[in-house]
Amino acid sequence: MNKKGFSLVELIVVIVIISVLASIAIPMYSKWVKRQGIVEDTKKIFSELNYLKLKAFTTKNEYSLCWNSNPFDVVIIKKNKTVEYTLPLKHKFKASVGTGYTCVDFSSDGTADHVGNIRAVDSGSGASVDCVNISRFRISLGKWSNGKCKNY
Fold this sequence. Notes:
CATH superfamily: minor pseudopilin epsh domain
Order of helices and strands: HEEEEEEEE
Shape: elongated
Strand order of the largest sheet: 4-1-2-3-5-6-7-8
Distance between the termini: 67 Å
Number of helices: 1
């Protein structure tokens, strides 16, 4: 007798195996997507800060990267205190750049007027980079650890 196809038991076993594998893989994939999103947003902020620093120096204008609330998920780019554009982020970030400041300002010589850091609110996600350290002359990527942004 020549059998064609699968039995019901064989199909159920395959479905159970696929279900078990999916129940393990989906949460891991979700965490990976979140970590990658934090890395992407952190690099986006880092790139934008470096770009604004360069623009301030080359055009001799003042540029700022600002936020309306803390934590925030949108940054506002200003040229000479006038809004140029906004940059949406996928994750929330928190900034500490001096007391009461809501912007990182770059003067016309390309130096930062307010120093500090911007970090992902969910810093414990395991992302390879999750903060940006801003000093007067240098902007660097880092990993948030023990209340500090340690350079990458």
